[in-house]
């Protein structure tokens, strides 16, 4: 499986994720959240930012089921789901992830029939600190 | 300074030559050789000697650079050369940059080209080391690996919000295939498509199936742009560049456009606003359209973006044979990327020229205006051509 190849702007997100925290870059001056992380605020042009913890609750905005041809590690578990989650705390922040049966479970661990747009989900973290999502009502 | 005004691009330049190699899953010659063949064919079509060329434009993803091309085919001194990024989003911008340079007096004879062995070469997404850290870090670890996956995500949301169906996507695939079945140069010339085949085909990234995805093709194409004055002396009927635009919307994120207020409006909307602002006609006056079709779902989005229908109506627009010959907007009349060849959309430019010359294998009677678009879902470009 591919690990995140981070950059200067993205590194804090992954550091917090390894501590089991979902945090979103937020302008320290105008308070606007932004994603993906970037050096300055597109609203007020401030270079000051902080990483604000969010509840980790969200709703499925869309989803796909990739089938081969895929990279070998992903082909081995295909078809699996990939979802985009809209955060309840910050609706314009949408994170790509996987809906799984429990923290640490495989990308194909949840039945495809359980996945629908608007389903309520909660963030969990796998052993490597990669964010995953589980259904709020399993 | 009386009489001085912004000259603008409108009809100031024309495409006077087109050329291409054959298309196949695998061609024996390398990309550089294919580029040379397409460029020389386009110049021969125009009746212009290679030594007269002084401007070039291509894609940043083009592997044959200006130096290699110029020294091989015998160009003259080059005074303008430009490369446009974002893969298939750059197709129409190659012509737009040449038209701009020629209209501004920076050059006189421009050649645009694309040569690619995507059929027999590697799929770009399999190279995991060349991906930019942003935005790949936010998508690829989760298995969102390919352009098909990224666009499938927007497609699902589009279907959810507007009630678009797989039948709408099939209408796009079928129109392209029907035109390819009329075009002996098309990869899918002798392979008809049925609804049964479409609905039972394998998934690539659900909700996109095999037939929602473009071909993987080896081939090269080129065209020649000159001033309207020079165009009158060329071998072929000039096809005028009536309007041209690039488009990179505010807060756009490329094919993973999940992070703004309205992810289902893309670069087409931005390009369209500029395109129509400078045009003497409207979407209702377009006789034939060549719309970038790496994936079927890009067509309904583009139909909305370029103003052929309202927001959310792109799926319904495809009903009743609207995209077929004789329909409201005949689409991709050489077969497009879905069924003629996928060469980052350059075949759509050449087909637009053939329609306005009256030489298409699926000719729209008396076609006088054509919209050509580049890839939607990435920073894009578009042309309005007229005869």
Key terms:
heterodimer, A: 138 residues, five-stranded antiparallel β-sheet, two-stranded antiparallel ribbon, B: 387 residues, alpha/beta, nine-stranded mixed β-sheet, 17% strand, globular
Your description of this structure?
The complex is a heterodimer of chains A (138) and B (387). Chain A is mostly beta strands. Chain A has one domain (11-135). Helices cover 9% and strands 30% of the residues of chain A. Chain A has helices at residues 11-18, 72-75, and strands at residues 23-27, 49-53, 57-66, 82-87, 94-97, 120-125, 131-135. A five-stranded antiparallel sheet of chain A has the order 5-4-3-6-7, with no helix packed on it. In chain A, strand 6 (120-125) and strand 7 (131-135) form a beta hairpin. The longest helix of chain A has 8 residues, at 11-18. The radius of gyration of chain A is 16 Å and the shape is globular. Chain B is α/β, with parallel strands linked by helices. Chain B has a domain at 13-121 and 219-227: Peroxisomal Thiolase, Chain A, domain 1, CATH 3.40.47.10. Helices cover 31% and strands 17% of the residues of chain B. Chain B contains 13 helices and eleven strands. Chain B has a nine-stranded mixed sheet. In chain B, strand 5 (203-206) and strand 6 (208-209) form a beta hairpin. In chain B, helix 1 (31-46) crosses helix 2 (66-73) and helix 9 packs parallel to helix 10 (298-305). The mean pLDDT of chain B is 96. Chains A and B meet through strand 3 and strand 5 of A and helix 4, helix 5 and strand 5 of B.
The fourth-level CATH homologous superfamily of the domain at 13-121 and 219-227 in chain B is Thiolase/Chalcone synthase
Widest sheet: strand ordering of chain A: 5-4-3-6-7
Termini Cα gap of chain B: 33 Å
Can you tell me the CATH architecture of the domain at 13-121 and 219-227 in chain B? Answer: 3-Layer(aba) Sandwich
**Most residues in contact, chain pair and counts:** A-B, 38 and 39 residues
Number of domains in the coordinates of chain A? Answer: 1
Number of helices of chain A: 2
Any low-confidence stretches of chain A, pLDDT <50, length ≥5? Answer: none
């Amino acid at each position: 499986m591919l690990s995140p190849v981070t950059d200067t702007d993205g590194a804090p997100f992954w550091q917090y994720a390894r501590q089991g925290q979902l945090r979103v870059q937020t302008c320290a001056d105008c308070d606007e959240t932004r994603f993906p992380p970037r050096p300055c605020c597109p609203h007020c042009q401030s270079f000051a930012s902080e990483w604000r913890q969010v509840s980790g609750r969200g709703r499925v905005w869309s989803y796909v089921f990739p089938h081969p041809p895929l990279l070998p590690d992903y082909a081995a578990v295909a078809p699996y789901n990939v979802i985009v989650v809209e955060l309840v705390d910050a609706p314009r922040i949408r994170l790509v992830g996987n809906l799984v049966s429990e923290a640490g479970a495989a990308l194909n661990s949840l039945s495809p029939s359980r996945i629908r747009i608007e389903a309520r989900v909660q963030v969990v973290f796998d052993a490597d600190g990669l964010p995953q999502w589980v259904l709020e009502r399993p | 300074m009386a009489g001085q005004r912004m000259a603008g691009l409108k009809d100031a330049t024309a495409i006077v030559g087109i050329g291409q190699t054959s298309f196949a899953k695998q061609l024996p010659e390398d990309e550089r050789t294919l580029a040379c063949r397409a460029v020389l064919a386009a110049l021969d079509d125009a009746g212009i000697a290679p030594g007269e060329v002084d401007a070039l434009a291509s894609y940043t993803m083009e592997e044959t650079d200006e130096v290699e091309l110029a020294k091989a085919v015998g160009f003259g001194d080059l005074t303008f050369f430009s490369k446009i990024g974002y893969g298939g989003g750059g197709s129409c911008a190659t012509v737009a940059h040449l038209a701009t340079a020629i209209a501004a007096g920076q050059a006189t004879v421009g050649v645009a080209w694309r040569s690619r062995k995507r059929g027999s070469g590697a799929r770009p997404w399999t190279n995991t080391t060349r991906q930019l850290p942003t935005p790949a870090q936010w998508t690829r670890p989760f298995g969102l690996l390919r352009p098909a996956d990224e666009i499938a995500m927007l497609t699902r949301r589009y279907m959810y919000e507007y009630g678009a169906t797989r039948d709408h996507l099939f209408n796009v695939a079928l129109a392209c295939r029907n035109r390819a079945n009329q075009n002996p140069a098309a990869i899918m010339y002798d392979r008809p498509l049925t609804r049964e085949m479409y609905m039972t085909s394998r998934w690539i990234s659900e909700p996109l199936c095999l037939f929602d995805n473009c071909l993987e093709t080896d081939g090269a194409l080129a065209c020649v742009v000159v001033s309207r004055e020079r165009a009158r002396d060329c071998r072929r009927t000039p096809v005028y560049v009536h309007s041209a635009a690039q488009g990179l919307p505010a807060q756009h994120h490329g094919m993973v456009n999940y992070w703004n207020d309205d992810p289902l409006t893309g670069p087409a909307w931005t390009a369209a606003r500029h395109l129509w602002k400078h045009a003497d006609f409207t979407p209702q006056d377009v006789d034939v359209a060549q719309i970038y079709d790496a994936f079927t779902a890009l067509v309904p989005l583009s139909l909305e973006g370029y103003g052929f229908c309202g927001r959310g109506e792109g799926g319904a627009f495809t009903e009743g044979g609207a995209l077929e010959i004789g329909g409201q907007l005949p689409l991709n009349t050489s077969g497009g990327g879905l069924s003629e060849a996928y060469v980052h959309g350059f075949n759509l430019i050449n087909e637009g020229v053939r329609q306005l010359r009256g030489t298409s294998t699926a000719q729209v009677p008396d076609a006088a205006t054509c919209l050509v678009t580049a890839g939607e879902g990435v920073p894009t470009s578009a042309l309005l051509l007229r005869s």
